[in-house]
């Protein structure tokens, strides 16, 4: 398998590297767009925006993700959700599979088996840890979101970013930038362009980010009560962590669980924040771990070393065992 279109981490990402995506779209008559498991608004926003663009060109397209069975509630208002198909209905053979916001084949879950049935696999992403598993890879590790990468591809492809597509792209941009906290030159230019289509940026952000059932509040009380500070972690820079057991979050959705890290990471005394989330297989003590850092630590490297991946300041991995052991492993990995 020959990979093309990859970029080294510190090289500027040019139109020539994006053009390979346009070439792949123009050569295809049937396309599957795959989003990652436990989808967030960047992977779904990317999947639906691309699905809408392909559909308008008359190209047969399915958009899907392996799990859970239903789209998280906060994303059900996004345009293009009629393009979503259940995982077991995803075609076995197509010209082109496009994965969006997926750093590795593991992020595809049970749908990873579809990769073998495609002539071309195009990986569009911005994760630093991306394993470049496509036959064509368009991975801009400096991009704010995968939707920001797609916006540039659409321009090269002469695809109009209308209100529906802008809504999907903005969904990924506003969430992956943490409501425009993590930005770079050009981020607000893209945001302005999307807003100028007439989308309601305030409503989109509120729906995706500031919208929790009442049960979120007592859950936070319990979970934040578990928070611990390891002041001497990473040479005294500090680690703060909290533990989320299944019982704490019963009846709540993924958006509620994923919001916890954004509160934990605000502790002034800690450079690194972790949230240990107990997964379904609780008897085996299995955990999904979210990591965040502020400045000095590249948690993408830390998470990759522990079997996961992500971005410089936001990453994750899975592990099993008692919490004390997981904290010890994490502290050892932080050095
Ligand atoms: Mn993303």
TrEMBL record:
Q: Which Pfam families does this UniProt record tie to the protein?
A: DHH (PF01368), DHHA1 (PF02272)
Show where the DDH domain sits.
31-172
- The name this protein carries in UniProt is Bifunctional oligoribonuclease/PAP phosphatase NrnA
Taxonomic superkingdom: Bacteria
Question: Which GO molecular function annotations are given, in alphabetical order?
Answer: nucleic acid binding
- Domain DHHA1, by residue range, is 244-324
């Amino acid at each position: 398998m020959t990979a093309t279109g990859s970029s080294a981490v510190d090289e500027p990402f040019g139109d020539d590297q994006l053009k390979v995506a346009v070439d792949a779209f123009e050569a295809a008559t049937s396309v599957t767009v795959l989003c990652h498991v436990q989808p967030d608004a960047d992977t779904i926003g990317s999947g639906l925006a691309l699905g809408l663009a392909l559909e308008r060109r008359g190209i047969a397209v399915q958009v899907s993700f392996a799990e859970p069975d239903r789209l998280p509630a906060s994303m059900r208002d996004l345009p293009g959700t009629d393009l979503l198909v259940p995982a077991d209905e995803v075609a076995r053979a197509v010209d082109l599979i496009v994965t969006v916001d997926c750093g590795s084949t593991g992020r595809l879950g049970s749908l990873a088996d579809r990769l073998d049935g495609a002539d071309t696999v195009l990986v569009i992403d911005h994760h630093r840890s991306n394993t470049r598993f496509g036959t064509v890879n368009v991975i801009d590790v400096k991009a704010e979101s995968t939707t920001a990468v797609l916006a540039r591809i659409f321009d090269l492809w002469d695809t109009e970013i209308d209100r529906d597509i802008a809504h999907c792209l903005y969904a990924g941009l506003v969430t992956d930038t943490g409501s425009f906290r993590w930005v770079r030159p050009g981020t607000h230019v893209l945001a302005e362009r999307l807003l100028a289509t007439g989308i309601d940026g305030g409503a989109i952000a509120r729906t995706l980010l500031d919208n929790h059932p009442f049960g979120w509040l007592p859950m936070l009380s319990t979970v934040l009560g578990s928070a611990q500070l390891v002041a001497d972690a990473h040479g005294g820079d500090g680690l703060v962590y909290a533990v989320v057991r299944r019982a704490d979050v019963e009846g709540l959705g993924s958006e509620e669980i994923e919001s916890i890290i954004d509160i934990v990471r605000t502790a002034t005394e800690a450079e690194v924040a972790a949230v240990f989330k107990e997964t379904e297989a609780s008897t085996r003590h299995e955990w999904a771990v979210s990591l965040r850092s502020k400045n000095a630590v590249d948690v993408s490297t830390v998470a990759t070393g522990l079997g996961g991946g992500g971005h410089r300041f936001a990453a994750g991995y899975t592990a099993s065992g008692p919490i004390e052991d997981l904290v010890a492993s994490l502290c050892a990995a932080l050095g």
